[in-house]
Amino acid sequence: MKQYPRTYTTRQNVKLTVRPRTEDDSGYLSMFFSDIPREDLIIYREDVYKSHSIETWFLDESYKKDLQLLALSDNEIIAEGTIHKEGIYWQNAAEIKLIVKPDYRNQGIGSYMFNTLLHEFLERKLQKVIVRYTPDNMSFIKIINRYGFKPETVLKSYVKIDKDNKEQDLIIASYNLVDWIRKFEFYNLITPRR
């Protein structure tokens, strides 16, 4: 992957390095997930608060991840994004899972990581992007709305996210990158070249 590592500077002038996960990142991932609110982790089937789950899900190659990217400031993981094929049986589809540490949200990191993951989708010739989220995840909804993701289903009262066992819906949305490529090509055709 010669295009990595990449650098990104946040709106608050924090310099980040974006690169694929390595085997040495297990301990850093444990620290990262310990700082993430439990309700943000419903996109993972494993309980990522447990180190065994982190080693299994994030390091075991049988979990069918095409790519796992980390955004780091020094050696601290700030964001984690994955192109994930586990449980998806169509070769043209995969899921994006993206988490940003709460203290670093609203700085453009999620958007940058999402854009990077979409670029990787195109490189891998994947067509269908799938995401999962809860209705209160406004920062993620803002990102996916920019691309035109449409909810395909709402699983009512699907997740219990806090110690009071409050039930919350889970929304599954998707986007067809073939449509996006066509739009891009169309706008290139009608935009005058200089």
What can you see in these coordinates?
With 194 residues, the protein is an alpha+beta fold. The protein has a single domain, classed as Gcn5-related N-acetyltransferase (GNAT) (Aminopeptidase, 3-Layer(aba) Sandwich), CATH 3.40.630. Helices cover 29% and strands 32% of the residues. It has 5 helices and 8 strands. The protein has an 8-stranded mixed beta sheet with strand order 1-2-3-4-5-6-8-7, with helices on both faces. Strand 3 (65-73) and strand 4 form a beta hairpin. The protein is globular and about 40 Å long. Residues 190-194 have low confidence and may be disordered.
What is the beta-strand fraction?
A: 25-35%
User: Quick check: average pLDDT?
Assistant: 81
Q: Indicate the overall shape.
A: globular
In total, how many domains does the architecture comprise? Answer: 1
The level 1 CATH classification is Alpha Beta
The radius of gyration over CA amounts to: 17 Å
Look at the structure and name the CATH superfamily.
Answer: Gcn5-related N-acetyltransferase (GNAT)
Largest pleated sheet: 8 strands, mixed
Q: What is the SS-derived class?
A: alpha+beta
Distance between the termini: 32 Å
